[in-house]
């Protein structure tokens, strides 16, 4: 006889995996100076544009802005956009507007990830047997910490916009590409979400066209600004280099390199990331086509792999990390297993994913999060790469025929 009823077990598990987030937020309630530090960086940057002050300052500070202010690291155009708003409604109005959008974005991220059923009427091939449940997605909440909410980072607005537009990407792909490109102007790492259009069941040329258009539009402002070699662009480059490559390399690729003593600004890191991102994308293509994923599953797979491919993964970037991986694990059961280890791998995918989430959860509780979170994201990436290889090995003809329709395939 079970000690707890099913609803109680459910509530306890929700509390357990949400504990890093809840404890982080509660711990900051009494520390008002810690709230919205990243927002103040953007708001202060806007004020510097208006007043003609220094935008890239390691000790950025503005009058009438109490509390911790993060360093401004974005392109000047972002501060200029916020400055335009400030000129109309003032700093108080900007704070009210931003807070409203921020709360709405959090609602979109949490509701869209954990509450809304991933299936849609358009996905006629999708059944309840392959649609992730709340309890299957819940373990990934362990990656969220209080700082993901407390600091008020503009990335939260970006991830919510990407999620909302992604849900219509099959019908309105250009809208999704435009949203990702716009977010990429703020933070180029958002461009990894363009994996979504590569995984959708369009023709190869349409996929490539959407991807290239989004990538060029998103990265062009950064390239042009960096190519100016002006005093302002040099200040931006130095500030960004310090925070991205030295101070906080993050919890993914750059973080993995830091564990073995490789700097993120080295040529090895740049080439290594391109190889890693390429292999992750190829694995995603093999999974999407070989497992015959529905449109909604392909979208979520692209979002989850997009998160894992962010080279400098921060706490505010992990909201969408899990659902696509759960989809992949559920569909992997359809593969055959020529050996017992592969049978365990394909049939116990959800268990593997949950163990990696528990590693992140326990490591955070033991104050080893700087190591365990990076190991967990590495494990998730290796899971994707292994599943991609296994899928392609077994269903190569299906994958190739989907990408190259004119290719003659042998029966499966």
UniProtKB/TrEMBL annotation:
The chain crosses the membrane at residues 71-89, 101-120, 140-162, 174-196, 208-227, 239-262, 268-288, 350-368, 375-393. Keywords: Membrane, Transmembrane, Transmembrane helix. This is DUF2029 domain-containing protein. The lineage of its organism: Bacteria, Pseudomonadati, Pseudomonadota, Alphaproteobacteria, Caulobacterales.
């Amino acid at each position: 006889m079970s000690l707890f009823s099913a609803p109680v077990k459910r509530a306890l598990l929700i509390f357990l995996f949400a504990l890093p987030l809840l404890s982080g937020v509660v711990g900051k309630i009494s520390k008002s100076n810690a709230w919205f530090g990243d927002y103040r960086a953007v708001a202060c940057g806007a004020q510097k544009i208006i007043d003609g002050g220094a935008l890239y300052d390691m000790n950025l500070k503005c009058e009438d802005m109490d509390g911790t202010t993060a360093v401004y690291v974005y392109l000047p155009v972002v501060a200029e956009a916020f400055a335009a708003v400030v000129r109309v409604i003032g700093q108080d109005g900007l704070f009210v507007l931003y807070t409203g959008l921020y709360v709405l974005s959090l609602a979109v991220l949490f509701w869209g990830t954990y509450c809304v059923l991933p299936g849609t009427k358009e996905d006629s091939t999708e059944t309840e047997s392959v649609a992730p449940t709340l309890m299957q997605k819940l373990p990934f909440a362990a990656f969220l910490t209080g700082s993901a909410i407390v600091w008020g980072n503009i990335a939260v607005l970006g991830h919510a916009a990407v999620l909302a537009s992604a849900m219509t990407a099959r019908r309105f792909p250009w809208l999704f590409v435009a949203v990702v490109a716009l977010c990429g102007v703020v933070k180029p790492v958002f461009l990894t979400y363009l994996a979504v259009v590569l995984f959708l069941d369009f023709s190869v040329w349409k996929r490539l066209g959407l991807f290239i258009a989004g990538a060029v539009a998103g990265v062009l402002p950064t390239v042009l600004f960096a190519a100016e070699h002006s005093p302002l662009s040099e200040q931006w480059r130095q500030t960004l280099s310090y925070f991205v490559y030295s101070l906080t390399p993050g919890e993914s690729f750059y973080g993995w390199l830091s564990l073995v003593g490789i700097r993120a600004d080295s040529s090895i890191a740049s080439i290594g990331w391109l190889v890693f991102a390429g292999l992750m994308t190829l694995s995603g293509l093999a999974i999407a086509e070989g497992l015959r994923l529905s449109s909604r599953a392909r979208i979520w797979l692209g979002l989850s792999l997009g998160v894992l491919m962010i080279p400098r993964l921060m706490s505010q970037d992990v909201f969408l990390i899990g659902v696509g991986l759960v989809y992949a694990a559920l569909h992997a059961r359809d593969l055959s297993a020529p050996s017992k280890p592969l049978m365990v791998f394909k049939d116990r995918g959800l268990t593997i994913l949950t163990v990696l989430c528990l590693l992140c959860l326990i490591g955070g509780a033991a104050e080893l999060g700087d190591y365990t979170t990076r190991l967990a994201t590495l494990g998730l990436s290796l899971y994707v790469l292994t599943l991609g290889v296994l899928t392609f090995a077994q269903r190569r003809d299906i994958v190739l025929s989907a990408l190259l329709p004119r290719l003659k395939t042998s029966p499966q």
